[in-house]
C-alpha cells in the first residue's frame, strides 16, 4: 500500500479524468503529489495543485522548481495533459495542428526537460507518458490526434533509450476509450448522447469503456519500482481493442 512512500510525483492534466485518478492513486500509496493543470481546482486534500499551461515553458520551469523546493526531490513525472482533435486530413488548419502538437507532444517535452536534472538524483526515477492506442491502431476522423499520440509513442522510445542508463525509466500507457469528462464532452455534442454512449459501449471488446482508475493503475505500475526493468514499453489499457480495427463511435 505504500509503494510511493518517500517519493514525489508531478501529474500533468491531473485535475480531471485519468490524471486525477492517477494523482489520487499515487497519493493514496504514499507519494507527495503535485498536479499541473490549467485549472487545478477541487483536488482532494493533500494533493498540491499548481496552475500550469504545459505550452508555457517558463511557467513549467518555475513549477518544477517549486515542487522540488516544497518536497525536496522529484522522482516521478506523469505526462498526461492532452487535448482532442477530430477530423480527417482536411479537417484541421495549420494553427490547429501546431496547437494540438504544442500541448500533446511539446508539452511533455517541456515537463520532462525541466524535470530531468532532478530525476537524475532519484533512485526511483520514472516518466510515464499518456499515449493512446490510436498511435498505432488507426482511427478514422482522428488524423491530428493520432499523429500527436504517435509522436508520444516515439518520444517515449527515444527518451527511454537516452535515459535508461542513468536510471530514469520512460514508458507509456495507451488507453482505449476511457470513461472521463473528455468522452462526456464529445458525446454531449452529438444529437443523442445516450444512444451514442450505448453504441460506444457496444463497440468495446468488453462491452464497456475502460475506467480512469484502470488507466491510473497501469500508470502507477509503470511509475513504481514494481516495473523495474521496463523502459520504452507501451502498456495498452483497452480490453484488447488495439487488436481490432477502430471505427469512430
Ligand atoms: P480530461 O479532459 O478529463 O483531462 C485532461 C486534463 O488535461 C484536464 O484537466 C485539462 O485541463 C488538462 N489540460 C489540457 N490542456 C492542458 C495544458 N495546456 N496544460 C495543462 N493541463 C492541460 O481528459 P482524459 O480523458 O483524462 O485524458 C487524459 C489523457 O489521456 C490525454 O493525454 C488524452 O489524450 C489521453 N487519452 C484519453 C482517452 C480517453 O478516451 N479519455 C483515450 C486515450 C488517451
Automatic annotation (TrEMBL):
<keyword id="KW-0560">Oxidoreductase</keyword>
<dbReference type="Pfam" id="PF13561">
    <property type="entry name" value="adh_short_C2"/>
</dbReference>
<dbReference type="InterPro" id="IPR002347">
    <property type="entry name" value="SDR_fam"/>
</dbReference>
<dbReference type="InterPro" id="IPR036291">
    <property type="entry name" value="NAD(P)-bd_dom_sf"/>
</dbReference>
<dbReference type="InterPro" id="IPR051122">
    <property type="entry name" value="SDR_DHRS6-like"/>
</dbReference>
<dbReference type="GO" id="GO:0016491">
    <property type="term" value="F:oxidoreductase activity"/>
</dbReference>
<dbReference type="InterPro" id="IPR020904">
    <property type="entry name" value="Sc_DH/Rdtase_CS"/>
</dbReference>
<protein>
    <submittedName>
        <fullName>Short-chain dehydrogenase/reductase SDR</fullName>
    </submittedName>
</protein>
<comment type="similarity">
    <text>Belongs to the short-chain dehydrogenases/reductases (SDR) family.</text>
</comment>
